[in-house]
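(Protein data)
===
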Amino acid sequence: MQAAMEITARYCQKEMESYGSCVSSNPSTWQQKCHDLKMKVSQCTSSHPVIQKIRQDCSNEFVKFEQCLKENQDTPTSCSAHVARFLGCAETVNLSGVATDPEPQLK
């Protein structure tokens, strides 16, 4: 998971910062107001193989986390157990053989 976080920060920092600022600024309406920014983060991260692998292997946990956020828009912190389950799953994903650099290798 540390590798995925580093990759996300490396390649999607601008998108993540914009989304995080939006969520912080709109505690009760962030789900609607920040949707476009969330999609930009998703588009950015979806192209990276490590993140794709984690999403694939932990999709059930991630879906449950997103559902919790939708149901608890005014209190997103109530979904901390869902976050913990997703992160726990992500830590167990076997990333051996997954390319960690999405930039093409020149030969």
Q: What stands out?
A: Helices lie at 2-25, 30-33, 35-46, 49-57, 59-71, 80-92. The longest helix spans residues 2-25. The mean pLDDT is 81.
